[in-house]
């Protein structure tokens, strides 16, 4: 069994926590966009209160461990591994509760090349204990506004994990596709599940728009978030997101495998 001490050491060695690759400049830019209510930073959250840049910095210092000094504007950002471990424990608790109920779940990621394995392992473990891993709206087109203009993507599932592909290059069984922070895919998936009259997820697990979009619609949602993802932590502070785990979301995919093992063990799931 992977202990908290062993995982803490791994978080620091892999730069999932501690000094991370996400720069302070990138994080501060996201806080400015969020304060201006730019949809690119909101990713599905509709904040109840005004969040200025200083308030966001204070929140991210409290939730992630980034420097609270507004004068620190360049260099690497930092995630406190103790906050990551505490949030992973809360994350695992929510998954364990869903597993004990045999609850239907929905998993989705906007970082398939990095995080698909993490969520896929959770999907496998949840399925093994009797949870239905939902795959609504597979193949459905989703129009998403990107910096290159309006692009059409296809909603797909790999190992039970939702992601979006560019239809002209995506094929079943090929490598997962697009990097996407939009909440539109989860909205399409949830609407399709409701229209089909089948089960709706009692827990949504993912990142970015998958968590924020589902949480804003009233679904219990938990996920991973980097220092430049203030939306999930604002959602958590306002009660829209149940758990946001601070972790660098851009390291090598195999570095997330110990996190899967830790969560599965903590949630008392069998693989």
Automatic annotation (TrEMBL):
<dbReference type="InterPro" id="IPR031423">
    <property type="entry name" value="Phosphatase_SCO2771"/>
</dbReference>
<protein>
    <recommendedName>
        <fullName>Phosphatase</fullName>
    </recommendedName>
</protein>
<dbReference type="Pfam" id="PF15698">
    <property type="entry name" value="Phosphatase"/>
</dbReference>
